[in-house]
Amino acid sequence: MKIAMIGTGYVGLVSGVCFSDFGHEVVCVDKDPAKIALLTRGEVPIYEPGLDQMMARNVAAGRLSFTGDLPAALAGAQAVFIAVGTPTRRGDGHADLTYVMAAAEDIARTAQGPVVIVTKSTVPVGTNRQVARVVAAANPGLDFDVASNPEFLREGAAIDDFMRPDRVIVGVESARAAQVMEEIYRPLYLRDFPIVTTDLESAEMIKYAANAFLATKITFINEIAALCEKVGADVKQVSRGMGLDGRIGKTFLHAGPGYGGSCFPKDTRALSRIGQDHGVPMRITEAVIDINEEIKRRMIGKLRDLCGGSFNGARVAVLGVTFKPNTDDMREAPSLTIVPALVGGGAQVTVTDPQGRREGEALLPGVRWEADAYAAAAGADLLVILTEWNEFRALDLSRLAGMMAVPRLADLRNIYSAEAARDAGFVAYDSIGRAGFE
Ligand code: NAD
């Protein structure tokens, strides 16, 4: 089967590469010529573990190619996936569908048909029908179906998530679209991963409901963590005790500095707008959005307290700026709130991140970049762990304490313990939802 993939971002590129690994012929298209130039040279524009090898293998096998030429990509394709961005629309919180609709019109003008137009981007309920209307209006003679196939991969573990998904959601309303989608995902059927076939609206809704639920789970434990600090409980013990209950589950119960990333913030905002538009306010999701902002502000307060009440003149070293480990993605990362507050408050800030510098340099003005945690910490008055990269999980705390001007540690990912920090020579330690010392 020949597949065209529109958009070579985190989702489009991973999906295209993995579909080619299934054995399909995949042509990936992007409107950004710089990305296509990189990809054609065999370079990967994003950091995603394992993607470069899988991409190279499938290019070499002749199943995977990249182009800016949409008509060539669509020629003979039985399915075309739309995997373009759906960021928050400026001003109102809705998902911005400009890129999706532009892609739909491009397809309508170029496709020969019969073709299934599959929306992989996260889109509000009703969008697939809107895509169908836009395509039919732009090219009334085109023989096409639509399908909704929201993506659930996590950056940093994207290949494994795509190749071994918890489930694949396919929203269709015609037997022909169902059959094409089944053929595309046949390798997963054979390996017994559940493929859930629904109507278009349910497929669209599943994606928002799932993301809002996960954002709620994180925010719930973050709020419990704030209470733990006041009552003398330890949130790590609390979340373990909760998570062992099979009805609750262990994942997404790690307290931290608030969720960020390319999906949870924008998808919770979009869901709350969809609810408002339909007169069914998503009150839990709305509360989650507000509480998450509060949590990020609370982190700034913690750091200010550790600096003795003011950032002015403090030398602060920040470990990790990407929104989570194993990605270079900086979209809505907590660092984008916390680091500017440090710089704005008069701190001298050094930062380090294994992959974040390329994106982060422009987004975090006024900081000095260092190669690793030790270089960043030298001479600092406060060390902040913001992203739990493996590189920061087994630091030599004694060495760090020894090279800092005032050894104080803000462990915003609960990697270490007050005891370990004290033993290493730190004079102050704070984390999330656990006792610290000063
Ligand atoms: P991204 O911004 O990384 O990539 C989008 C790509 O689409 C860009 O390269 C852009 O140049 C290209 N593009 C836009 N319009 C185009 C057009 N008309 N023709 C060709 N190319 C075009 O976005 P992403 O992170 O991959 O997200 C894509 C969608 O998938 C979003 O709806 C997102 O919510 C959803 N999603 C993302 C993730 C994730 O972890 N990033 C996970 C699940 C779902």
From TrEMBL:
Pathway: Nucleotide-sugar biosynthesis; UDP-alpha-D-glucuronate biosynthesis; UDP-alpha-D-glucuronate from UDP-alpha-D-glucose: step 1/1. InterPro entries: 6-PGluconate_DH-like_C_sf, NAD(P)-bd_dom_sf, UDP-Glc/GDP-Man, UDP-Glc/GDP-Man_DH_C, UDP-Glc/GDP-Man_DH_C_sf, UDP-Glc/GDP-Man_DH_dimer, UDP-Glc/GDP-Man_DH_N, UDPglc_DH_bac. It catalyses: UDP-alpha-D-glucose + 2 NAD(+) + H2O = UDP-alpha-D-glucuronate + 2 NADH + 3 H(+). Its EC number is 1.1.1.22. The keyword Oxidoreductase applies. Keywords: NAD, Oxidoreductase. GO terms for molecular function: oxidoreductase activity. It comes from the Bacteria. Residues 317-418 form the UDP-glucose/GDP-mannose dehydrogenase C-terminal domain. Belongs to the UDP-glucose/GDP-mannose dehydrogenase family. This is UDP-glucose 6-dehydrogenase. The lineage of its organism: Bacteria, Pseudomonadati, Pseudomonadota, Alphaproteobacteria, Rhodobacterales.
